[in-house]
Amino acid sequence: MNEKSTLFLNELTALFQKHLGQSLVGLYVHGSLAMNGFNENRSDVDVLIAASKAMTSLVRTSLTPELNTLADHVPAAGGLELSVVVIKDLVPFSHPAPFDYHYSTTTGKAHVVNSGGYDPDLTAHFLVTRDRGIRWFGAPIHEVIPEVHFSDAMKAILYDVEDAHDNIHTDPVYYVLNLCRALQFSKNKTVASKKEGGEWALLHLPPTYASIIKACLKGYESSQHHVPVPGLQLQQFASWILQCIRQNQRACE
What we know:
The chain is of the alpha+beta class. The protein is built from ten helices and seven strands. The strands form two sheets. It has a five-stranded mixed beta sheet, with helices on both faces. A two-stranded antiparallel ribbon has the order 4-6. Helix 5 packs antiparallel against helix 10 and helix 7 (about 170-190) packs parallel to helix 10 (about 230-250). The longest helix has 21 residues, at about 230-250. About 40% of the residues are buried. The model has no long low-confidence stretch (mean pLDDT about 90).
């Protein structure tokens, strides 16, 4: 992890210590930054925060402007995505998971949701955090973040990629590599980064898809979003991968 990311995470931790006080249980990094796949020119910073109780409206009101200021300097072109969860709400775990506060600058502005919300993506975030995450502050990960069963993980993963056929042309690099790592998990339960998923796919998918995967891996390294692959080929690739993922899901039910 580079110095800029380290400094940002330390400042983020200090901010939540200031506003949550003793209710802050832990701060955990997941996603590409935790899996050695981070590219500051396209990746985002993914963070989970665990708390012992829900934030009051007063805390939200005072926290958000300061978080906006800090997020303006996030050292990642993809922005910041952050969720606060209350640990007692996660036991017993149920998909989709509840959250107390969600903040994202990936769409160019803050997005805050009050308590009582549910996010299907959180299940995948828990999966990655338990397997590959970094405890930046607080309690050990496995004492806080719930275990995710394969069936729930697959629901979350399919939720994340189900639009791939229709939207793969908008960001082929993202969709192709995300599909590859989703297929990898569905086959052997390995939690992988996008880059790792693409590299795995080169070794295990039919050679006919090799040129697409290589182009997207190259695009990922060079921070490109588009690759010289016809849209029809991309859609065929997405359809085939999605079919394989669903078959693997059914085989484990």
